[in-house]
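Work package 3, deliverable 3.1, input record:
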Amino acid sequence: MRRKLAVFLIITVCFLLQSTLFQSLSFASISPNLLIVVTSSFGFMRGRKEGMWIGFFSGLLLDIFFGSVIGFYALIYAYIGYVNGFFRKRFFPDDIKLPLILIAASDLSYNILVYLFLFFLRKRFEIGYYFLNIMLPELVYTILVTIALYFIILKINNKLEETEKRRASKFV
Amino acid sequence: MKRRTRRSIPTKYTLLAVTVLCVLVMFVSFTMNISGGPLNTVAGYIFVPMQNGINKVGSWIVSRADDLASLRNVQQKNKELQAKVDKLTQELNTIKLEQYELDNLRELMELDQKYPSYEKVAARVIGNDGGNWFSTFLIDKGEKDGIEKDMNVIAGSGLVGIVIDTGPNYAKVRSIIDDASNVSGMALSTADRCIITGNLVSMNKERVIGFSDLKCDDNAVVTGEQIVTSHISDKYLEGILIGYVNTIERNSNNLTYSGTIIPAVDFQHLQEVLVIKDKKKTPSD
């Protein structure tokens, strides 16, 4: 319950920041993708299942407010969370290399999927342009934000795991 | 350690279920053209007040910062503007005379006023599309304020976009610069019709959007021509300014022209918009 509430708060805050503050802080009309950072980090910190659900709800939120059909972003985010979950065994909290690589890869694949389904299929073929001017700047910006945001999420997660362990040991 | 009381379903099956659910919902919302429903209501009540709050704080800070920065420029601007006012007053007088003449002529021809004054609602932009691919945004007025789907949205004198979805206290607007937006327009002076298509690439590069399929006589439409919404559009009211022709060139078929338009609205700094509450009446209604 505690965890669900915390995750809900994290998603809410990131969604709100992404749709308000970071739109004003955008460089060259590019803003970072905070929800992908949340989805991806919970994926490799907590495993496939939680990553998938967190991705699903983050995507659903985007679908409701900004999507043209319900379910599209939810599906993409769910898969990103799920795939990130495979790296749980290789994840060590002190090492930031793996999280950075995973989040970068997640952001890139998210953008490539969006491009393929929402642009390529509408005959917008200039992938080179989109790559250099949309995907790459977003990637860089997202990684910059990740460096701060990741540690916050990590801290919250550690706190939660501690309290969960303490509670569980009480019952034994 | 926590003891599992029941076997949980393997995650891959949950993923499969989620996939099927998403695809199903996508299909349904695409074919039936519905979106959200109760989800819109719930999400609207949870998130929109918070977005409103952030925006209020944000605009307060921005306005304070602007106050300080602009004070220096104001004096100089004032001088410039005064000169402009004088010039414009002169022009206005001329136009008033012409208007008077026009009214007389209209009366003579027993024409109704061509552009009735529409009922409008002012709304504030409270959130932009979270990603970088599309240009949709949220406004803080919704069904409760009488906003419906397909209402036109303007800012200043130019067309901003159209309401594509509503919640109880918010509405989603697709701007005309959105990559998936198409508007039927026409050249003001010649009434030649064309299609105006939002384009991410050209918008990013030069802040212009494209138009195509313009059928007109040789050189009838030139750079600087005003493009307004056309009379055949079934969702956009007639005669709202979209923008000005930036470039124009003949297509290889020698029949039509295409080119680019500079939108009349500054989409970068959109804060307040007006929603026109009158919807275009179509025979099917």
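Chain B touches chain A through 47 residues (CB under 8 Å).
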